[in-house]
Recover the amino acids of this structure.
């Protein structure tokens, strides 16, 4: 007795990585450096710890499912500042819902949007990029949809080609996950691209989910646009849209498990209902600290400067090898090394842990795997350790 859909999901990439490297012990004189997981290691601001401690008398209270009014106000003020939204476009009381990191919200969005086929009818489609964040696959599969993988390759600027999605596919689509800046390639969708995706969502009545968890990590002079800007430029309606943000990357606080979703009131209400049935509400002390983090932009600029330094180091050390390019957003290198699994094993011998690109991609219908040649390198560590790892990569491959 078990859920067949759940059993059908493959191992999470990091479990596959553990198996791939199980028989290798890094050489003794090389302290391991983990660049496989997108877990920022910079220190979050000290006030985070202080606020959580100061609110330690709140453990005997159940927190509200959608977040406190103050948390939702702080999130909304940040959205207005960051994306230059017209004041009033986002109503904090009806359009914002706290979630335990974007992961939880992205997962819940599928349950909110997907009505599985009844009486043996065809499964609805869930569109997502390939390479893909595994949560999109798991969430839509468990909600009864069939994932449709849209190639995001160098040839199309590492974003799915919206014009290549057939009308018969769009007609069956109930959710479309867009990730901008994208993981792992760091591509940033421009306003016209997101507007087009939103128009498609409205024309074919599906939910566009914009995963913007890397929206504050960028090395360009101008910040990446977000889907709320597209909604604003199309007249301000939030219909058919949910956008997710997190403090995991922005504030180097992946352990806080704090993010939020923003969308049309009808969708947000369903999200809150689902949270009531399925999720542990975010603790009050976390919400209090999170509100303060959303209100502070200075620490985010400092973090961005650290990532820029690491990309400078990568550019200097790797030069034009492995198809190196400086991504517009995010904190990953997506390196073409010929054989991602072989390179990952070789690098672990010298104590550098990366992720084979093929663990983030699904095979194409012809059996090829567009991630197979790549490794993903997360520049999440301290500057010195990252520089050392980059030297080892350049020497070893
Ligand atoms: C594309 C993408 N979306 C969402 C997440 C989830 O992040 P969190 O739940 O910490 O906000 C990650 C984490 O690495 C990610 O890479």
């Amino acid at each position: 007795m078990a859920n067949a859909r759940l059993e059908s999901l493959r191992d999470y990439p990091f479990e596959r990585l553990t198996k791939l490297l199980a028989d290798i012990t890094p050489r003794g004189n090389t302290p391991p450096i983990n660049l496989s997981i997108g877990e920022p290691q910079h220190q979050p601001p000290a006030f985070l710890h202080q606020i959580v401690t100061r609110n330690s008398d709140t453990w005997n209270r159940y927190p509200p499912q959608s977040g406190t009014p103050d948390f939702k106000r702080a999130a909304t003020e940040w959205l207005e500042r960051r994306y230059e939204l017209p004041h009033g476009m986002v109503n904090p009381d009806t359009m914002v819902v706290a979630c335990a990191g974007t992961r939880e919200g992205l997962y819940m969005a599928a349950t909110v949007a997907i009505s599985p086929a009844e009486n043996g009818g065809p499964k609805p489609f869930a569109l997502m990029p390939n390479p893909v964040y595994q949560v999109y696959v798991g969430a839509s599969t468990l909600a009864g949809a069939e994932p449709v993988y849209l190639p995001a390759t160098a040839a199309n600027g590492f974003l799915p080609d919206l014009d290549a999605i057939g009308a018969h596919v769009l007609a069956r689509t109930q959710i479309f996950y867009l990730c901008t800046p994208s993981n792992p390639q760091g591509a940033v969708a421009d306003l016209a691209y997101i507007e087009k995706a939103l128009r498609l969502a409205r024309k074919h009545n599906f939910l566009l989910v914009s995963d913007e968890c890397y929206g504050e990590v960028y090395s360009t002079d101008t910040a990446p646009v977000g889907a709320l800007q597209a909604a604003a430029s199309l007249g301000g309606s939030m219909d058919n849209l949910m956008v997710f943000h997190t403090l995991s990357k922005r504030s180097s606080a992946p352990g806080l498990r704090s993010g939020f979703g923003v969308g049309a009131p009808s969708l947000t209400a369903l999200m809150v209902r689902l949270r009531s049935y399925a999720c542990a509400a975010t603790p009050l002390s976390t919400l209090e600290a999170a509100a303060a983090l959303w209100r502070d932009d200075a620490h985010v600029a400092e973090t961005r400067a650290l990532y820029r330094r690491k990309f400078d180091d990568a550019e200097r050390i790797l030069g034009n090898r492995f198809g190196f390019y400086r991504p517009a957003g995010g904190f990953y290198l997506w390196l073409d090394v010929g054989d991602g699994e072989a390179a990952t094993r070789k690098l672990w011998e010298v104590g550098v842990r990366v992720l084979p690109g093929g663990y983030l991609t699904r095979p194409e219908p012809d059996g090829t795997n567009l991630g197979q040649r790549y490794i993903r390198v997360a520049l999440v560590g301290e500057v010195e350790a990252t520089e050392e790892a980059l030297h080892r990569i350049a020497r070893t491959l």
